[in-house]
Write a structure and sequence with these properties.
About 35% of the residues lie in helices and about 15% in strands. By secondary structure, it is of the alpha/beta class. The chain has an eleven-stranded mixed sheet with strand order 1-3-2-6-8-7-14-15-11-9-10, with helices on both faces. Strand 4 and strand 5 form a beta hairpin. The protein has 14 helices and 15 strands. It has two domains: about 10-255, Amidase signature (AS) domain (Amidase signature (AS) enzymes), CATH 3.90.1300.10; about 265-485, Amidase signature (AS) domain (Amidase signature (AS) enzymes, Alpha-Beta Complex), CATH 3.90.1300.
């Protein structure tokens, strides 16, 4: 090996080192394998590998690097969330029934990464059907948080976030419907970008089940990168952007509207009565705002779009539960739908919203979609006056493992109060319900030594601005830190 390799360096720095021939793609891959062998038995983030295929990809990358024909992501070793199809690799979606399922075709986003020169190491762990905020399933077991193995790294892109945080993967491909990239990024101290809806194709993603895939992205569902730095988001996102079919119209990636933080107009939304939030999380959001203010940003603590948080959450939650229910087999869907008639239309409890959403008729779905369109118009007007919103990625920081079977009986500890587990959806709903890009960027550590982040929301298509703001926040302090398990 030409020189020691820092596997927790940014993907951008690793790419520059490959281009400078300081080490080869094969060297980098073998170092990654050694890291996986050392750390993955305790973390259980990488659940499937094909080392022979990866070595062949790395050898091809070395040939291209030597010939001067390197592609944009040439030689970078990555894992792929086990919700995405990867040709030739078992792709289970966390379902035991799919554990041996080997697709013949890559998911569209995976195909774009492969064509850009990545070396695919394997797959990272997810909850069953990507349907939980922790990453465990009967097919592949439990994934631990590299900051403290007694804690979960979050879900559903929990294995992905751990692979990136621990240096087993240069970056990852994740997906997000209810915070599935933002929450694990917040829990593990990395960057997770929920992209504008339609910017990145989700074809080849589970859910929905393989036999029920639509040509366009299902409502609300997105794919995007998980990285160690903001500059890596700008490296990877242009590769991922674009629909499966040119006839499908989606969001377009815009250049950042500002070159630096001077004059940046930021709405600070650190807490809200509708969304109780742990004080350490709110403090981290305020710390991020302070860093931007020190760079010349204009922080407004009262600015809000002309929407009611409760209305925005109801619209999102109904559509979210409808999308999820569509993907479930009838025998699983029926018990969720059964209680719907017993709930008032004004009941915003998680149980009521889940049952009502799962039971919506096409007409009701259309009515809720019209409400959503009105919310999106208000957000568009808001972003004519402001550049970004800073808010919590989730109500709490990383949580201890809790696999009790009734998800509605689980509780979060928010400033000593017990809150419903599905409160994880509330802060995530603002961006997802309006199709907006939202970045979770690391800010600081809690008193317990666990990561805390900030959510940066920008206008549709301005994903690169969200990434840039995340970079400005972390350049002023905080940012990615290698977790303790990598320093043992």
């Amino acid at each position: 090996m030409a020189s020691p390799i820092d596997l927790t360096a940014s993907a951008t720095a690793l790419r520059q080192a490959l281009l400078a021939r300081r080490f080869s793609a094969s060297d980098l891959l073998e170092a990654s394998f050694a890291r996986i062998d050392a750390l993955n038995p305790g973390l259980n983030a990488i659940v499937t590998q094909d080392r022979a295929a990866a070595r062949a990809m790395a050898a091809e990358s070395d040939r291209r690097l030597a010939a001067g024909t390197a592609r944009p992501l040439e030689g970078l070793p990555i894992s792929i969330k086990d919700a995405f199809d990867v040709a030739g690799l078992p792709s289970s979606g966390g379902l035991p029934a799919y554990k041996e399922r080997i697709p013949a075709e890559d998911a569209t986003a995976v195909a774009r990464l492969r064509a850009a020169g990545v070396v695919i190491i394997g797959k990272s762990n997810v909850p069953v059907f990507s349907g939980d905020f922790q990453s465990y399933n009967p097919a592949h077991g439990v994934t631990g948080n590299p900051w403290n193995l007694a804690f979960s790294p979050g879900g559903s892109s929990g294995g992905a976030a751990v692979a990136v945080a621990s240096g087993m993967s240069a970056f990852e491909l994740g997906s997000d419907l209810g915070g599935s990239m933002r929450w694990p990024a917040h829990s593990t101290g990395v960057f997770g970008l929920k992209t504008s809806w339609g910017l990145v194709s989700t074809w080849g993603l589970i859910p929905p089940p393989p036999e029920r895939r639509p040509p366009r992205n299902p409502d609300l569902l997105v794919a995007g990168p998980i990285t160690r730095t903001a500059e890596d988001l700008a490296l990877v996102l242009p590769v991922l952007a674009g629909p499966r079919d040119a006839a499908i119209v989606g969001a377009r990636l815009a250049a950042p509207r500002r070159a630096d933080a001077r004059g940046l107009r930021v709405a600070l939304w650190a807490e809200d009565p509708f969304a109780p939030t742990d004080s350490e999380v709110s403090s981290a959001v305020r710390d991020a705002a302070r860093r931007l203010a020190e760079q010349g940003a204009i922080i407004d603590e009262t600015a809000r779009p002309a929407i009611r948080f409760a209305d925005a959450f109801e619209v999102y939650a109904l559509l979210n539960h409808a999308v999820v229910a569509y993907c479930l087999p009838p025998k699983v869907r029926a018990p969720i739908q059964a209680p719907a008639r017993g709930f008032s239309p004004n009941d915003l409890s998680h149980q009521a919203l889940q049952a009502r959403g799962a039971s919506m008729t096409p007409s009701q779905y259309h009515q809720v979609s019209q409400r959503r369109a009105a919310l999106k118009r208000q957000w568009a007007r808001f972003f004519e006056r402001y550049d970004a919103v800073l808010c919590p990625p989730a109500p709490v920081g990383a949580i201890p493992h809790d696999h009790s079977p009734d998800i509605h009986a689980r509780r979060l500890d928010v400033n000593g109060d017990k809150r419903p587990y599905l409160d994880f959806l509330i802060w995530a709903s603002l961006a997802t319900g309006a199709d907006l890009p939202a970045l979770s960027a690391p800010v600081t550590l809690s008193a317990a030594g666990l990561p805390l982040g900030v959510q940066v929301i920008t206008a549709i298509g301005e994903d690169l601005l969200a990434a840039a703001i995340g970079g400005w926040i972390t350049e002023a302090g905080g940012g990615f830190q290698a977790p303790p398990i990598t320093r043992a």
